[in-house]
Task: structure prediction
Amino acid sequence: MTMTYAQPITRRATRGRHVVPALWRQVVRAGAGAGAAEQAVQAEQDRSAFTQLEIYDGVLTAFDRRVEVLDAIAASPDRETSVRRVRELLDVSHLQATAILDLPLQRFTTESRDRIAHRAAELRAALSR
Result:
């Protein structure tokens, strides 16, 4: 009997792509409560808290200037141009701009902003210990 195993992910498979952390997907997903976010944190121990905080800071910046961000995205012909315009507009990293573009419009609510700000504050407190 021959056992087969999943093939390891090679560098080539992820080269040039920025992957949005699973925790971020949990935060922006509709219906993700505090319990789901805590489970995502436990399931994703290998993701750096600094990277998560970087994404949250970029998204909070986009919330403060959401009209300008949405105008820049709407005026862009493709995704790469959108990423570049958001980076220039907000002075954020490529990872942050990608996370902003991946944020569904229905998540640009005050409730989502408060949830993200709360999680960012929790991360800052944990990192400052």
Q: What stands out?
A: Residues 40-46 have pLDDT under 50 and may be disordered. The domain at 48-128 is CATH 1.10.268.10 (Topoisomerase; domain 3).
